[in-house]
């Protein structure tokens, strides 16, 4: 038996589940897991189905499903569960998110492949080398940014990358790149600190006596740090915590949230509906 993961999005209507089930029956499929949701604001129906079938030819399975559901004009993804998502990780000088992702990948917790790590600084190359992953240094200045982003796009194409993960990559992507990689770039940033923009946000938060700090993983869009949210978490803090304590706690929340977001994406559990996401956790 071959296991597949199917996602489907389309305008909500009667009979969608019946049509998909008919297509799966035609493909001799046996459903292992199914989740569905209708977004009333977008009138979008979202479906995640994990199933098995003796049919090893994925194109035949896809044809059976698309033919059965064609009248709903759906957006469908279908992959064999064994075909892992290919992730390009981008970093700068902070290593906590990168090290966490690599640990979870090496331990088998994250079902992904990491064919390359890209950075605008050479500092974290030893970490990539230790994991036996190619490290590509692409310096970025205001003058070289178009060339650097073109280099990144070539890597995405040549390495058949599914998603780019910004693991504390401290460069703002251009609007053009955000458009070309829409729905394919995940970022992590501090959240629940809305009044503290710019440098040293945790130090600013400490001065204001915050009681909650957190992190948000989201898809990158041209609107800085305002893309569709995938995962969030918070940690309570108190008056006895120093600014350095908040930085440490914040880093721990950041890596937890980013790894969960990458896992959800790698299992096809994140579906975009406009400016929001449907996450089948």
Structure explained in plain terms:
This protein has about 280 residues and is α/β, with parallel strands linked by helices. The chain has two domains: about 1-80, ACT domain (Alpha-Beta Plaits); about 85-280, Rossmann fold, CATH 3.40.50.170. Helices cover about 35% and strands about 30% of the residues. The protein is built from eight helices and 13 strands. A seven-stranded mixed β-sheet has the order 7-6-5-8-9-10-11. A four-stranded antiparallel β-sheet has the order 2-3-1-4, covered by helices on one side. A two-stranded antiparallel ribbon has the order 12-13. β5 (about 85-90), α3 and β6 (about 110-120) form a beta-alpha-beta unit. α1 (about 15-25) packs antiparallel against α2 (about 60-70) and α7 (about 200-210) packs across α8 (about 245-265). The radius of gyration is 21 Å and the shape is globular. The protein starts with a strand and ends with a strand. The model has no long low-confidence stretch (mean pLDDT about 95).
Number of strand segments: 13
Helix/strand-derived class? alpha/beta
Question: Helical proportion?
Answer: 25-40%
Number of helices, where a helix is a run of at least 4 consecutive DSSP H or I residues: 8
Shape: globular
Overall pLDDT confidence: 94
Major sheet: size, sense and barrel closure? 7 strands, mixed
Catalogue the unreliable spans: none
CATH architecture designation of the largest domain: 3-Layer(aba) Sandwich
Rg value:
21 Å
Terminal Cα span: 25 Å
Percent of sequence in beta strands: 25-35%
How many separate domains? 2
Q: Secondary-structure element sequence? A: EHEEHEEHEHEHEHEHEEHEE
User: Which CATH first-tier class of the largest domain would you pick?
Assistant: Alpha Beta
Widest beta sheet: strand line-up: 7-6-5-8-9-10-11
- CATH-level-4 superfamily name of the largest domain: Formyl transferase, N-terminal domain
Briefly note the CATH topology name of the largest domain: Rossmann fold
């Amino acid at each position: 038996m071959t296991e597949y993961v199917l996602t489907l999005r389309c305008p909500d209507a009667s009979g969608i589940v019946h049509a998909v089930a008919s297509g799966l029956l035609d493909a001799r499929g046996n459903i292992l897991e199914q989740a569905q949701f209708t977004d009333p604001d977008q009138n979008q129906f979202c479906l995640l189905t994990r199933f098995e079938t003796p049919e090893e030819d994925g194109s035949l399975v896809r044809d059976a499903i698309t033919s059965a559901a064609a009248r709903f004009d759906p957006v469908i993804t279908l992959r064999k569960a064994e075909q892992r998502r290919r992730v390009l990780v981008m970093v700068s000088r902070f290593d906590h998110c990168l090290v966490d992702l690599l640990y979870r990948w090496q331990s088998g917790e994250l079902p992904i492949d990491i064919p390359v790590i890209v950075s605008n600084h050479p500092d974290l190359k030893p970490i990539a080398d230790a994991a036996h992953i190619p490290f590509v240094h692409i310096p970025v200045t205001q003058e070289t940014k178009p060339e650097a982003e073109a280099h990144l796009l070539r890597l995405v194409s040549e390495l058949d990358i599914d998603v780019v993960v910004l693991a504390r990559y401290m460069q703002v992507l251009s609007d053009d790149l955000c458009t070309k990689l829409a729905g394919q770039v995940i970022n992590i940033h501090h959240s629940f600190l809305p009044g503290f923009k710019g440098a040293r946000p945790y130090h600013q938060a400490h001065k204001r006596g915050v009681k909650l700090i957190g992190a948000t993983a989201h898809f990158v869009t041209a609107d800085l740090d305002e893309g569709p949210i995938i995962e969030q978490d918070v940690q309570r803090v108190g008056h006895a915590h120093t600014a350095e304590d908040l930085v440490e706690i914040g880093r721990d929340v950041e890596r937890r949230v980013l790894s969960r977001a990458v896992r959800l994406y790698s299992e096809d559990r994140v579906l975009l509906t406009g400016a929001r996401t449907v996450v089948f956790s």
